[in-house]
Design brief:
Layout lengths: L1 H4 L1 H26 L3 E7 L4 E8 L5 H31 L20 H9 L8 H9 L10 H21 L5 E6 L3 E4 L4 E7 L3 E3 L4 E9 L7 E4 L2 E6 L13 H24 L19 E3 L9 H8 L5 E5 L4 E7 L2 E7 L11 H16 L5 E2 L2 E5 L2 E5 L3 E4 L2 E9 L7 H28 L2 E4 L5 E4 L5 E9 L18 E5 H11 L2 H11 L9 H14 L7 H5 L6 E2 L12 H16 L7 H12 L3 H18 L9 E7 L6 E7 L4 H18 L9 E9 L7 E9 L6 H11 L11 E2 L3
Parallel strand pairs: 18-21, 21-22, 23-28, 25-26
Antiparallel strand pairs: 1-2, 2-7, 3-6, 3-9, 4-8, 5-7, 10-13, 11-12, 12-13, 14-17, 15-16, 17-18, 19-20, 24-25, 26-27
Helix pairs in contact: 2-3, 2-7, 3-6, 3-7, 5-7, 6-7, 9-11, 15-17
C-alpha cells in the first residue's frame, strides 16, 4: 500500500533499510578482521584487568558513519516525502496556502514548536487526518498508555537526536557489554574473584571490561582470560542503554518501524479519500518551457525555414523525433516552438487498463477542476450490474462520455497493433453509444473528483464521446474512420487528452473544444495539429458586435481567440494560478450536501470564462488586492470588473474590497443585482445567470484573503428606489465601470 500511494516515500524507506543491512554487513566484516583487540594485565599484588580497544582499518569508521548518516537522511526523506506527496496528490482537490513555502514532516520538542512549524505551512495541503496523526505522535506528547504510539514517539525522538549528533560531527563506534568474563591462572595462583565492568563505549584507547583478583600470585604465573563480552556496532553519542536488551540495532529497528508505521498510516488514510488525485509527476517542464520562441530553439532553425513556415497556409509545422513531438506555430508575435510532452506515467501498482483510467481522470482533475470529473459508477440491471462508462466530464449543459482502451502486454507487429487499435476504437464507440442512451433516459447520481455525490441530469446534457487509447507505441499515420451514431465519438491518444487539458487548463474549454470538433482527427495522434489549425482560424476571425448597452455604461469590448496558441498561463503563470485559486476557494467552501448541485452549476459558470481572459482577470485581482490592503483611515476601497462572453453566457462579476463587513457584503450584493438587472434591458433574464465573487484581504496570516460567492438567476425584482440608489452608487462618472469581455466567434 505504501508504494501504491507514496512511491517516493517507499523508495526512501527501502533505501534506509538497505543502508541498515549494509552497516551490519560491514560491521561483521570488521569484527572478523580483528577490529577488536583484547589485553590482560596482572599486577604484582594479584589484581588485574581485562581490556579491549578498537583498531580501525583506514577509512572504515568514516564509511560506517557515512552509511548511518545516509540511513538517517533517507528516513527523514521518507517522512518529508509522505507530506510532499500528499500535498501533490490532493492539490487537485484544494487550494494551497502559501505554495512557495516548503512542505516537510515536522518534529518538535514542544507543542509551541510544533504549532510554529504548522504556521509556516509545512503540512498545508495534506489531509487533516495526516496532520492530526503527526501531532499525536510528537516526542513531546505525554504517554496515554498506547504502546504503539509510545514506540513511534520514541522512534521520532531518537531520529531527531541522531540527526543533531551527526550534524555536530559524531561518528560510529562500538559498545561493549560484559556478560561472563573468565580468568584462568596457573598454580600456585588462585582466582578469587572476577567482576564484569559496566557496559560502555569502546574506542582506540584501552577500555576495562572486567577486573579480577588472584591469591598466591607470583611473578611469572601464566594468566589467561576470556572477555565474555558482546561488542555491538553503536552510535555512541548519547547512548545510555536501559538494559542489556537495549542495543543500538534494536533502536535503529525501532526508528525504522516508526517511520514505516507513519507510511502505512498515511497510505491508509489517503485510501479512504474518494475522488481524483493529481497526475503523477514525470519531470515535465512548466507551461512556459514548452512554448519558446523558435529563435531560441536548440534546433537552431534558419531564418529561411522560419520565414517559409510563417508564410505557409496554416503556419504550422511538425517535427517528430524518436521520443519527441514538436510543433512549429506561426503567430502574430513570431514563430514559436511547442513541445508536446509524452503522457504522464501510469501508476505501476495497477494493471495497465485501470492505471490508464485513473490517469485520464486525474489529468482532467489536475488541469481542469475535479468537480466536473465523474468517476465510473455501477448500477444494477436485471440480475447483473453495468458500469456507466470509464468516467464522465460534465460542465454545465455539456458532457463527455469517456471510454479508455489500454494495450496490455508487449506490442506485436505494426499490422497487428493497427488492427488492435481500430478494433478498440470501434468497441469504445459502441460502449459510448450505450452509455449515452442510458444517460439520456434519466438522471443519475455520481461521485465527482472531489468525492461529492452530485446529480447528473443526463437528458438535459449534450453528449459527445471520447475513446482514449493508451498504447506504448501507437501506429503511425493511422487513419481513423468517422464514427456514425447519435453521439459523436472522438478517438484520442492519452497524450493528446493531456495536451488539451495542459494547453487550456479549463474543463469548460476542453469540453467545448471536443463538442466543437465533434469527430476524430484524420489520423490518430493528430489532435495537436488540429488544435493549432483551429487556433489559427480563431485568430483570424472577425469579432462580433458588442452589446451597445455595455458600451453606454463604459464597458470596453475586448476580443481574444477561444483557442489560444500559447499554453494557458505561459504569459503570466502567477495571474493564471490566481484564477485557479479563486475557483478552488469557491469549490471547497463548506456547504451542505443538498447544495452541492447548485455549486456545480455556479462553478460551471465561473469556468466558462474563456481562457484568453484569465490572465487579465488574475492580474486584475492580484493588483487589486495589493491596492486595497492598506486603505486610508475611514475609507473603503473597491475594485470591480465584469466579464460577459456573449449574449447568452453567464455574466461574471469580480470585486475586491479592503474590508469584509456587513456593509460591504450588502454593497457587493447590490452591485451584482444591479449588473444582472441591467442585462434585462436587452435580454430575457429568465434564462440568464450572473455570478459574483468578492475577495477581501486578511491580516491574520491564516489566509491571504476571504472569498465570497453569490449567484442570481431570473429577475432580481429591484424596486424603483433600489434601482436609483444602486445606479447612483455604482454608475456615477467617478465610479468603477463594468468592463465586458466577449469571445471571438468561429
Amino acid at each position: 500500500m505504501i508504494r501504491e500511494y507514496y512511491p517516493r516515500a517507499w523508495q526512501h524507506l527501502d533505501n534506509a533499510r538497505r543502508a541498515k543491512v549494509a552497516m551490519a554487513r560491514l560491521w561483521n566484516t570488521l569484527l572478523e578482521g580483528g577490529l577488536v583487540e583484547e589485553g590482560v594485565v596482572t599486577h604484582p599484588d594479584g589484581s588485574g584487568v581485562i581490556t579491549a580497544w578498537l583498531a580501525w582499518p583506514p577509512g572504515r569508521q568514516a564509511e560506517l558513519t557515512e552509511l548511518f548518516g545516509g540511513c538517517v537522511q533517507e528516513l527523514w526523506a521518507c517522512l518529508d516525502a509522505l507530506v510532499t506527496e500528499s500535498v501533490e496528490a490532493f492539490s487537485a482537490l484544494q487550494r494551497l496556502r502559501r505554495p512557495e513555502c516548503p512542505r516537510f514532516f515536522p518534529v518538535a520538542d514542544s507543542l509551541e514548536g510544533f504549532r510554529e512549524s504548522l504556521a509556516e505551512s509545512c503540512m498545508d495541503g495534506a489531509l487533516r487526518s495526516h496532520v492530526a496523526m503527526v501531532e499525536d505522535c510528537q516526542p513531546f506528547q505525554d504517554s496515554d498508555g498506547d504502546e504503539v504510539i509510545d514506540r513511534i514517539r520514541r522512534g521520532l525522538a531518537l531520529l531527531l537526536a541522531w540527526e543533531a549528533a551527526l550534524d555536530a560531527g559524531a561518528v560510529m563506534g562500538a559498545w561493549a557489554t560484559p556478560v561472563e568474563p573468565q580468568v584462568r591462572a596457573a598454580a600456585p595462583a588462585v582466582v578469587e574473584s572476577v567482576k564484569a565492568a559496566e557496559p560502555g563505549a569502546l574506542g582506540e584507547q584501552e577500555h576495562v571490561l572486567a577486573r579480577y583478583r588472584l591469591s598466591s600470585y607470583q611473578s611469572g604465573c601464566a594468566v589467561t582470560a576470556r572477555a565474555g563480552t558482546y561488542v555491538d556496532l553503536c552510535f555512541t553519542e548519547g547512548f545510555v542503554p536501559a538494559d542489556n536488551e537495549d542495543t543500538f540495532v534494536r533502536r535503529l529497528s525501532l526508528v525504522i518501524e516508526a517511520v514505516t508505521r507513519f507510511a502505512i498510516s498515511f497510505a491508509w488514510l489517503s485510501s479512504q479519500v474518494p475522488g481524483s488525485r493529481h497526475v503523477l509527476s514525470a519531470g515535465h517542464s512548466a507551461p512556459g518551457d514548452t512554448w519558446i520562441a523558435a529563435t531560441r530553439s536548440s534546433r537552431h532553425w534558419s531564418a529561411e525555414q522560419l520565414a517559409a513556415l510563417a508564410s505557409s497556409d496554416i503556419g504550422l509545422g511538425r517535427v517528430e523525433d524518436a521520443d519527441t513531438l514538436t510543433l512549429m506555430v506561426s503567430t502574430p508575435s513570431g514563430v514559436f516552438e511547442r513541445v508536446i510532452p509524452h503522457a504522464t506515467p501510469l501508476r505501476s501498482h495497477d494493471r495497465r487498463g485501470t492505471a490508464a483510467e485513473i490517469a485520464v481522470q486525474d489529468a482532467a482533475a489536475t488541469w481542469g477542476l475535479p468537480d466536473f470529473v465523474m468517476a465510473p459508477s455501477v448500477e444494477r440491471k436485471g440480475r447483473g450490474v453495468r458500469e456507466i462508462s470509464d468516467g464522465l466530464l460534465v460542465v454545465g449543459d455539456q458532457g463527455v462520455v469517456v471510454q479508455i482502451k489500454a494495450r496490455e502486454g508487449e506490442p506485436a507487429s505494426a499490422e497487428r497493433e493497427t488492427s488492435w487499435v481500430l478494433k478498440q476504437i470501434t468497441a469504445a464507440g459502441k460502449q459510448i453509444q450505450g452509455t449515452a442512451r442510458r444517460l439520456r433516459a434519466e438522471s443519475v447520481h455520481m461521485v465527482n473528483g472531489r468525492g461529492r455525490r452530485v446529480r447528473v441530469d443526463g437528458p438535459a446534457i449534450d453528449w459527445v464521446g471520447v475513446a482514449s487509447i493508451e498504447h506504448p507505441d501507437p501506429p503511425q499515420e493511422l487513419t481513423v474512420a468517422e464514427h456514425h451514431g447519435r453521439t459523436p465519438v472522438i478517438a484520442l491518444l492519452r497524450r493528446d487528452w493531456e495536451f488539451l487539458f495542459n494547453q487550456l487548463r479549463s474543463t469548460h474549454a476542453v469540453v467545448g473544444y471536443l463538442h466543437r470538433v465533434g469527430t476524430s482527427a484524420p489520423v490518430l495522434g493528430g489532435e495537436p495539429e488540429r488544435y493549432y489549425e483551429l487556433a489559427a482560424a480563431d485568430a483570424e476571425a472577425v469579432p462580433a458586435a458588442a452589446d451597445p448597452s455595455w458600451t453606454r455604461r463604459g464597458g470596453q469590448p475586448h476580443s481574444v481567440p477561444l483557442l489560444p496558441a500559447a499554453p494557458a498561463g505561459s504569459d503570466d503563470d502567477e495571474a493564471h494560478t490566481m484564477v485557479r485559486i479563486l475557483l478552488e476557494d469557491v469549490a471547497t467552501s463548506p456547504l451542505d450536501p443538498d447544495e452541492w448541485d447548485t455549486r456545480q452549476r455556479v462553478l460551471a459558470c465561473l469556468d466558462s470564462l474563456p481562457v484568453g481572459y484569465r490572465t487579465d482577470l488574475g492580474r486584475f485581482l492580484l493588483d487589486a488586492l495589493a491596492a486595497v490592503t492598506e486603505p486610508e483611515t475611514g475609507t473603503t476601497v473597491w475594485r470591480m470588473r465584469t466579464f460577459i462572453a456573449g449574449p447568452d453566457g453567464a455574466q461574471l462579476g469580480f470585486a475586491v474590497c479592503s474590508a469584509l463587513t456587513d456593509h460591504t457584503r450588502a454593497a457587493f450584493s447590490a452591485w451584482l443585482r444591479l449588473r444582472h438587472h441591467e442585462r434585462g434591458e436587452h435580454a430575457d433574464l429568465a434564462q440568464l445567470t450572473s455570478v459574483g465573487v468578492l475577495l477581501t484581504p486578511r491580516a491574520d496570516g491564516y489566509r491571504e484573503w476571504d472569498t465570497i460567492m453569490s449567484a442570481i438567476s431570473g429577475d432580481p425584482e429591484l424596486t424603483g428606489e433600489e434601482l436609483r440608489a444602486y445606479q447612483d452608487l455604482f454608475n456615477t462618472p467617478n465610479g468603477r465601470q463594468p468592463q465586458p469581455r466577449r469571445h471571438r466567434p468561429d
